[in-house]
Amino acid sequence: MNSATAQPISPASSTKNFSPLVSQFLDYLRLEKHFSDYTVKSYGADLLQFGQFLAGEIGQAHANADAGAMSLTELDGKLRECESLAIREFLAYLYAQNYTKSTTARKLATLRSFYKFLIRRGIVSLNPLSTIRTPKQEKRLPKCLELEQVQKLLDAPGDGDLLSARDKAMLEVLYSSGIRVSELVELEMSDIDLQEGILRVRGKGRKDRLTPIGSQAIKAMQRYFEIRATDIRSQGTHANRVFLNKHGGPLSTRSVRRKLDKYLTAAGLDPGISPHTLRHSFATHLLNNGADLRSVQELLGHQSLSTTQIYTHLTTSRMKEVYDSAHPRADVPTIPHPAVTNAMPEERKFYPAKAG
Fold first, then answer.
1. What is the pLDDT of residues 275-299, one digit of tens each?
2. What amino acid positions are annotated as catalytic residues?
3. CA end-to-end span of the chain
4. Three-class SS state of 210
5. Which of 16, 72, 138, 231 is 20 to 30 Å from the Cα of 300, by its Cα?
6. Domains of the chain
C-alpha cells in the first residue's frame, strides 16, 4: 500500500485526495468525456461527501460513534459493497441538512454516473441506485429580461476605452448568440468570423457548433478589437483568447459575473440577474418572434429537445397576454351552460360557470 492510499479521509485531507476508484472516474470524465474542469470538480465534491458519509465522518454513524480513520483503499471497498439502503440513508442525511431537491437530484445524478462507470468497468455487478427514484423537482421558469431591460443593460458599458469596449462586446455576444459564459471565456480569435457573423463555440463535452451573431454584436466586437490592437498587454501569451482581463490574461467566468453586476447597478436593473439570464432571454425572444423549437435547440447547444422545451412555458404565457389584449372577445365571459340557466338556485352549485 502506498502512502497516498493509506491516508485517512478526514475532512482536511479529503479535499485534496480522492480514492483510487473516484480518481479513475474523474479522469474518465475529464479525458474521455471531455467534461469541463468546473463540472469535474462538482462531481468530485459530491463523491467526497458521499465517501465521508460511508466512512462515518458525517451523518448518523458519526453522531453515534467515533469512527476510526479509514484509508482510501478501505473506502473503495465501501464503495464497491454499497447497497441501496446506504443510498437511502445518505438521502435522509441530505434531507436533514435541508439540501434543496435540485441539489439532492444533482448528487444522485453524480452517484448514478459513478456506479454506471463501475459497472461498465466490471468493478461492481449491481447498481445500488437501481431502485432509487430522483425526488420530483419544482418547476421553476427561468428569468427572462424584457427587450427594454436588455437595451438598458447593453447600453451601460459604453465603448470609450478598452475595458468598456470589451464589456460591451461581451454582453452583446452573450445576448446575440445565447452562448454560455463558460463558452464565452473560451472563445479564441480563430473561432470568430465577423465578416460572416459566425462563432465557433466549444460546448459541453467539447461538441463544437456554429452560432450566428447579429450586427450590433459584430459592431461591438469590431470596436473592441480596434482598441485592443493598440494595447501592448493584449499582445502577450494569451493573445489568441478573445476576451482578456486588464492584465492580458484569460477572462474568468467569475469576472464576467462581477462585470455584469456592475452594469446591472448602473442600469438600475434587478441585481439577481445572472449571465445565464441573457441566455434565457435570447431563447425566449427568438421563440416569441416565430423561431421554431428545434432551431433554438441547435443554437443553445442542447443535446435533448426536452431541455429546450422549458422556454415554451414562457412563450405560452406571452401568447396568452397577446391574445387577451388583441382578441375582441377575449375578455367576454363564457356563455353559461343551458343547464345552469334553467336550474333552480340551489342546483346551480352542480354546474359551476367557467371563468371569463
1. 888 988 888 888 888 887 788 888 8
2. 180, 204, 276, 279, 302, 311
3. 75
4. strand
5. 138
6. 3-120 (no CATH), 147-308 (1.10.443.10)
